[in-house]
Structure formats: structure tokens, C-alpha cells
Design goal:
4 helices; NE0471 N-terminal domain-like; single chain; three-stranded antiparallel β-sheet
């Protein structure tokens, strides 16, 4: 069974988050991936508006693009973390269940693809 309980969480504000889960699995999330997978209502379009996860196209003449960083990370109860991003975004609450579900490792991604195929064929 997949555990959504973290054993250890390592946070690097300039690189990302690594989580060792109680079932022995390890997940590593890069900054851009975490920002793209923000679960907040604005980013997911839960308000009935289009999702806004992807930033608007930058000017072709832009000379400097600030590096994405986590400004701060705080615990939300015993079930999640909230990330404050250098782009000003801070409303996403990343539950441990969400983080485990979006694990980018090959094993988990293969499992997600298998589940999607099974769901399509069972309809």
C-alpha cells in the first residue's frame, strides 16, 4: 500500500523538496515541477476560470528572468506544507497525499499511466 506519511522531508529553497515516505519510497521534486503542480484553486481553475499555472509569455526582449525559489515553507497541520514562491504566489497547500500522487519518479509515473489506461478500458 502507498503511504502518504512522510518519514523525512528535506527542503532546499533553491533546488526543491525530497521526501522519504514511511513505506520506503523516496520522492524528489524540483522547483519548477512543484510550482507547475500547485493545487490551489487559482492554478487548477477550481473557480470556474482557466487554470493559471503557466506564467504568461515573457517578452522576447526580456533580458533577465528571476530564478524561481521558495521564499518560505511552513507546515499546515500534520497533513501538508504551504510554499511561498519568489513569484509572489503563496496560496497552494501541498498535502502529503497530493505530493505522493504527483511523485515524478519513473515508477510512480508508470503507475499513473497504467491507472489511466485501466480507467479508460473499464468504461
Amino acid at each position: 500500500m502507498v503511504s502518504t506519511d512522510p518519514e523525512h522531508i528535506a527542503i532546499s529553497k533553491s533546488k526543491g523538496i525530497k521526501i522519504d515516505w514511511k513505506d520506503g519510497h523516496a520522492s524528489s521534486y524540483e522547483l519548477g515541477y512543484l510550482r507547475d503542480e500547485c493545487p490551489c484553486a487559482t492554478c487548477t481553475g477550481a473557480h470556474g476560470t482557466p487554470p493559471t499555472t503557466k506564467p504568461a509569455a515573457a517578452s522576447p526582449f526580456q533580458m533577465y528572468k528571476p530564478t524561481l525559489k521558495m521564499v518560505d515553507v511552513e507546515s499546515v497541520g500534520n497533513y501538508a506544507i504551504r510554499i511561498m514562491w519568489s513569484d509572489g504566489h503563496s496560496t497552494g497547500i501541498y498535502s502529503f497525499e497530493h505530493l505522493r500522487k504527483i511523485c515524478p519518479c519513473e515508477e510512480c509515473q508508470d503507475g499513473h499511466a497504467h491507472q489511466r489506461r485501466e480507467a479508460r478500458t473499464s468504461k
